[in-house]
């Protein structure tokens, strides 16, 4: 989701010395005079996955009012798919936790319509996801899809992922989820402080946050923070092999290219947190819109 035209808006909030370095984990949760933020927490790994549970514990301990509304099962790669069935099963296994037998988008839709009925949350957080959502991976990500569903309904949203483009080490990635959610808590605190009584982000703008795995054990802290765009490359290339019986074996090749300067891939590869502003529509920027208009000039049915 490369959204050039939203970058200047988010830059007003994020391009500051305070966020250029990693946001301190010990930052206070909120100004004392303000009521706690109400957060709908979702993901695409499932309601009981390590990432979402780490985020729930960290954000709750920071003083936020957090409710999990997330898929019952792993929905990685579900993208923006939602509302594709005539009925949906929902479980409520514990207080502040709802498990929806559908996609991240279904979970957010149910959460906004029923769990938060009559009073939308202040923020939807999707993640933290196991593995990265950079470059074309973000386009097909259920984690990002959950955030998009929130943005479509006018609710500010942050998608969060842990990992880089290299094949993830499970133990190191799970360990890296703790510094990821520490950073997330600080990021939300900064947005809350600067928003005062207003919205956390400009209307329609969300953030896709990718935190790198630092150190062999994953417990290290990122080297800094970069405001980025989604790298245009597709590092995973589909591979099909004819089985000769009308079926094809499906595989994938990892074929990364050098990252674009200023991209999410460049930042994460350098050990920095990538924060990419995004929105929920598929509009181009003004320049590409004008170029396309010139190509179509004079076209008639």
Brief description of this entry?
The chain contains nine helices and eleven strands. The protein is α/β, with parallel strands linked by helices.
What are its keywords?
Stationary-phase Survival Protein Sure Homolog, Chain: A; 301 residues; alpha/beta; 9-stranded mixed sheet; 9 helices
Structure overview:
With 301 residues, the protein is of the alpha/beta class. The protein has a single domain, classed as Stationary-phase Survival Protein Sure Homolog, Chain: A (3-Layer(aba) Sandwich). It is built from 9 helices and 11 strands. It has helices at residues 7-14, 17-20, 50-61, 104-115, 135-139, 142-152, 170-195, 264-269, 286-296, and strands at residues 38-42, 65-71, 90-94, 97-100, 123-130, 157-162, 206-211, 225-227, 236-242, 248-254, 273-278. The strands form 2 sheets. Strands 3-4-2-1-5-6-7-11-8 form a 9-stranded mixed sheet, with helices on both faces. A two-stranded antiparallel ribbon has the order 9-10. Helix 3 (50-61) packs parallel to helix 7 (170-195) and helix 4 runs parallel beside helix 6. The longest helix is centred in the middle third of the chain and has 26 residues, at 170-195. It is globular, with a radius of gyration of 19 Å.
- Using only C-alpha atoms, the radius of gyration works out to 19 Å
Q: Beta fraction of the residues?
A: 15-25%
Helices and strands, in order, run as HHEHEEEHEHHEHEEEEHEH
**Which structural class should the secondary elements be placed in?**
alpha/beta
Number of helices: 9
From the N-terminal CA to the C-terminal CA, the straight-line distance is: 31 Å
CATH superfamily descriptor? Survival protein SurE-like phosphatase/nucleotidase
Biggest β-sheet strands, sense, barrel: 9 strands, mixed
Helical content class: 25-40%
Mean pLDDT score: 89
Can you tell me the CATH architecture?
3-Layer(aba) Sandwich
Class, according to the CATH hierarchy?
Answer: Alpha Beta
The geometry reads as globular
Can you tell me the CATH topology? Stationary-phase Survival Protein Sure Homolog, Chain: A
Tally the structural domains: 1
**Low-pLDDT sequence parts:** 1-32
């Amino acid at each position: 989701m490369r959204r050039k035209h939203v970058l200047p808006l988010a830059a007003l909030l994020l391009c500051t010395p305070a966020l250029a370095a990693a946001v301190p984990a010990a930052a206070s949760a909120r100004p004392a005079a303000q009521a706690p933020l109400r957060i709908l927490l979702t993901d695409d790994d499932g309601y009981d996955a390590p990432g979402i549970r780490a985020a729930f514990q960290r954000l709750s301990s920071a003083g936020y009012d957090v409710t999990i509304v997330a898929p019952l099962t792993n929905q990685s790669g579900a993208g923006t798919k939602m509302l594709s069935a005539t009925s949906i099963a929902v479980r409520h296994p514990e207080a502040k936790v709802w498990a929806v037998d559908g996609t991240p988008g279904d979970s957010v839709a149910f959460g906004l319509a029923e769990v938060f009925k009559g009073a939308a949350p202040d923020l939807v957080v999707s993640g933290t996801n196991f593995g990265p959502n950079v470059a074309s991976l973000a386009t097909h990500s259920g984690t990002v899809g959950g955030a998009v569903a929130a943005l479509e309904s006018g609710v500010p949203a942050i998608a969060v992922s842990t990992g880089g483009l290299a094949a993830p080490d499970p133990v190191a990635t799970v360990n890296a989820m703790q510094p990821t959610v520490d950073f997330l808590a600080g990021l939300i605190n900064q947005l809350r402080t600067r928003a005062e009584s207003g919205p956390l982000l400009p209307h329609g703008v969300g953030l896709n946050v990718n935190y790198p795995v630092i150190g062999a054990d994953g417990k290290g802290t990122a080297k800094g923070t970069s405001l980025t765009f989604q790298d245009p490359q597709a590092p995973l290339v589909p591979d099909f092999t004819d089985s000769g019986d009308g079926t094809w074996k499906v595989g994938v090749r990892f074929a990364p290219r050098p990252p674009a300067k200023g991209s999410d891939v460049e930042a994460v590869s350098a050990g920095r947190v990538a924060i990419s502003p995004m929105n929920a529509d598929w509009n181009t920027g003004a320049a590409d819109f004008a170029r396309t208009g010139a190509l179509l000039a004079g076209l008639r049915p």
